[in-house]
Specification:
This protein has one domain. A two-stranded antiparallel sheet has the order 1-2. Strands 3-4 form a two-stranded antiparallel sheet. The chain is globular. A hairpin with a 5-residue loop joins strand 1 and strand 2. Helix 2 packs across helix 3. The chain contains five helices and four strands. The protein is mainly α.
Length: 111
């Protein structure tokens, strides 16, 4: 299987709304990142459990530690925190909607 470089998604500076159109949504879902083995693995934009998403960002941590660290990232990034609050995110929310996941990725990058 040939190795392809990950697609780099361009964010529009200052844009905080939903993805522009269906084609943009498809590109977002099809983007890839390299996993530890160096193989490409598609990141799917969908609902994630908070701990599940945290473990994608901190794969060598326990679920509790990863969750604490992701929560810290959100608290310390005022713009991210405010944007999430505007779309209904609550501090102890257990499931993130696809839109909330998209906002996290916009501010901290893809896991």
């Amino acid at each position: 299987m040939p190795h392809h470089a990950p697609h780099q998604h361009q964010w529009i500076p200052g844009y905080h709304g939903p993805l522009a159109n269906k084609q943009e949504q498809i590109r977002m879902v099809q983007r890839t990142t390299e996993n530890k083995a160096g193989l490409e693995k598609a990141f799917v934009l969908r609902s994630y459990g908070y701990g599940e998403l945290a473990l994608l960002y901190f794969p060598n941590s326990t679920k509790k530690s990863a969750t604490t660290q992701l929560r810290r990232w959100i608290r310390r990034n005022g713009e991210l925190r405010n944007t999430l609050a505007q779309i209904g995110f609550a501090e102890r929310q257990r499931i993130l909607t696809p839109r909330q996941v998209e906002v996290v990725i916009r501010y901290v990058g893809e896991p």
